[in-house]
Write a structure and sequence with these properties.
365 residues, Peroxisomal Thiolase, Chain A, domain 1, four-stranded mixed beta sheet, 12 helices, 39% helix
Length: 365
């Protein structure tokens, strides 16, 4: 081929294909079943009226979460430590989780740390500068020219956001490899003096955890191919979900109308995205949905159920681990990566986060 002439389209596609090679999770050291957490909750509420206490216990029991993991022992969670002390724990433990999750994924893929060209770290439950990726570069002796992107303010959606950012980097850089690491510790944001329903509901549904996704535009690497991705932004909904920085730390913002807002926008989130790729929901074989909480899961299950689809893996992840913010959808993805899925099957990843926004990725197994 003469120098300067464009590559044939089939050759371009071969080199431009981006695949998810590996997903690996990492859980913190501490864990408690919900039934074991409730006594701590009761002690925390001992000065509240009995009716309120019964309501809170019922919220924990009906949250759809059987067990959760934490970077802190429950005694620490329910101790009046300062924002500084909690954030110091976050920095220390998130760095450990980041190293372990990345190493787990590298071992699975049989890559070396120096094989990674682009590292994206996502977290919204603590504050650290430099970001955790700087520590991972040092500890794992990654390449000194590795490209870094810390994502700190996209909440539960950031796991898929990181995949979207990595996909665009890899499409522009054939033959390269990327790591997306989601690291979250919502228990570090628990507000000890806040007896609002928002603080209580978030405590009932959230847990801590980490996960790493390895992606590649190297033709030697295998895995489901990303064939499309897109974000959808809700207008005038910035106050629906997020954190407010207060003297005692990061205070959860979670509007009770979130499930209804999702249901209202659902056709606009799903149908145009699929239509752009000449698909309908009936063509999607696997739904990889972020379990935001029981009510959101039930809302989306009803919407997909009417279309003949299930989100059983999403419900199971919520049950086993709780909502780990950005990392949770990656736990759902790992379950699908470990299944014997038929070649050519289509999967759709979906998550929601502050902004308010929806993130979508279309996969071909």
């Amino acid at each position: 081929m003469a120098l300067g002439l464009p590559l044939p389209m089939d050759t371009q596609k071969k080199f431009m294909s981006v695949k998810i090679t590996t997903v690996a999770k990492q859980l913190p050291a501490y864990s408690r079943k919900t039934e074991e957490v409730i006594p701590f909750v009761k002690q925390w509420m001992h000065q509240q009226e009995n009716r309120f206490q019964r309501k809170v216990v019922k919220i924990f029991e009906s949250a759809g979460v059987d067990k959760r993991y934490s970077i802190m022992d429950p005694i620490e969670v329910f101790t009046n430590t300062s924002f500084e002390e909690r954030n110091n724990i976050y920095v220390r433990e998130i760095t450990k989780l980041g190293k372990k999750s990345l190493q787990n994924a590298l071992n699975k893929a049989k890559w070396k740390p120096t094989d990674v060209d682009f590292i994206i770290t996502v977290s919204c439950t603590g504050i650290m500068i430099p970001s955790v990726d700087a520590y991972l570069i040092n500890e794992l002796k990654m390449r000194q020219d590795v490209v870094r992107l810390p994502v700190t303010e996209m909440g539960c959606a950031a796991g898929i956001s990181g995949i979207i950012y990595a996909n665009n980097f890899l499409k522009a850089n054939p033959g390269k490899r990327a790591a997306v690491i989601a690291l979250e510790a919502p228990t570090a944001t628990f507000q000890l003096e806040d007896f609002s329903m928002v603080n209580i509901v978030s405590a009932a549904i959230f847990g801590d955890g980490a996960a790493c996704v390895l992606m590649s535009s190297n033709e030697e690497d295998a895995g489901p191919e990303i064939i499309a991705e897109e974000m959808y932004h809700f207008y005038d909904a910035t106050d629906m979900m997020g954190f407010k920085l207060v003297n005692t730390g990061l205070q959860m913002i979670l509007d009770k109308s979130v499930p209804e807002k999702i249901a209202e926008h659902f056709p606009y989130i799903i149908n145009p995205f699929l239509e752009k790729n000449n698909l309908k929901i009936e063509d999607i074989d696997h739904l990889i949905f972020h379990p935001g909480g029981r009510k959101i899961v039930e809302t989306v299950e009803d919407l997909f159920g009417s279309l003949g689809k299930n989100i059983d893996d999403t419900k199971e992840v919520l049950k086993l681990y709780g909502n780990m913010s950005s990392a949770t959808v990656l736990y759902v993805l790992e379950r699908f990566m470990e299944k014997d899925i038929q070649k050519g099957d289509l999967g759709m990843m979906l998550s929601f986060g502050p902004g308010f926004s929806a993130q979508r990725v279309l996969l071909k197994f």
